[in-house]
């Protein structure tokens, strides 16, 4: 069987990461089977359409490295859907209803299918399915008609979508039968929902983030893709960090879990940090600059990258780790510490200004005054913790370090 799948979002809002997870499942299933991946914008609900949503959908996929083979916009095919709706009226399988067309559900028997996720048989009694609108009074098709017509005409082999669509599937199967397309009906695979950590469904109404939200927060596309692919699917072993090629070769529908997946942002943050630490310095430099071009104005910013790489969890952490937090007000003990550190650092020449000399001088002051490491960090960086201070100060330089201490001793911002 030739594999052809589609991701078919409605542009009624910016898709959250759970929606994009389903797109990734479709994409990598196509890749694993040398198939075709279609992006289909289902914009027949004109009243709820949001103009920027279509662009956000495409930007989200492209940022993750997901390119489509075909691109379809349903609103450009309205006459086609009307033609098929009228065909059912002529066959007396649908009827006019106040300017709309309603499909007549046969009330005898049952409608069932074998779902590719979990291999379970799902069955509905036809008597419990109401006659449903397929063409609205404004001439636009409903989701049910447009979905089935497009899947048939585009020769979709597998419909991989969220389990929320299970109640719609018997309606779609009945439409396939009404059009005599049953032999060409796709395989249905309904993937489990993605839940919040409180086990409630991921939802934009409840603040679920989009791919672009995570992009703007400094997450790497490869890390987010990796994490989303493991929400409801897993390889044969316990690997968590997988290169893209592994998904392309290994993704199978039978490995999709039937239980809901939990979106844990803390786990994503950990994974993003792992990807940052594995990144080549040259690539990480480009990623940091793309995220925040203004960091190039930080003196010696390139030298900080290998040091910050060990502590970063997002690209946004770079500036926080490198720049001093100017909002901290020193107490009396810390102000005295700053004065003693200045005195000690002045005794270190420019030629001797290195991490070892800085460390020895700082430890000597700490032991003399009996202060904590936290105090040292707050004086030197403005934060209770951060990059190894001796290495940071070596990069920062003797002059800037001493002038910075002079500024905070005077309680002025540097």
Short description:
The chain has 414 residues and is an alpha/beta fold.
The total count of helices amounts to 17
User: Helical percent range?
Assistant: 40-55%
Q: In angstroms, what is the radius of gyration?
A: 29 Å
Topology, number of strands: 12
Structural class: alpha/beta
How are the strands of the largest sheet arranged?
A: 1-2-3
**Order of helical and strand elements:** EHEHEHEEEEEHEHEEHHHEHHHHHHHHH
Please give a handful of descriptors for the protein shown.
three-stranded antiparallel beta sheet; three-stranded parallel beta sheet; single chain
Task: Characterise this structure.
This protein has 414 residues and is of the alpha/beta class. 44% of the residues lie in helices and 12% in strands. It contains 17 helices and 12 strands. It has helices at residues 17-32, 51-63, 78-90, 143-153, 169-178, 211-216, 221-229, 244-250, 265-278, 281-291, 301-309, 317-322, 332-346, 355-369, 373-381, 389-396, 398-409; strands at residues 4-7, 36-41, 70-73, 94-97, 100-103, 110-114, 121-125, 132-135, 158-162, 187-191, 194-195, 261-262. The strands form 5 sheets. It has a 3-stranded parallel sheet with strand order 1-2-3. Strands 4-5-8 form a 3-stranded antiparallel sheet. Strand 4 (94-97) and strand 5 (100-103) form a beta hairpin. The longest helix is centred in the N-terminal third of the chain and has 16 residues, at 17-32. The radius of gyration is 29 Å and the shape is elongated. The mean pLDDT is 95.
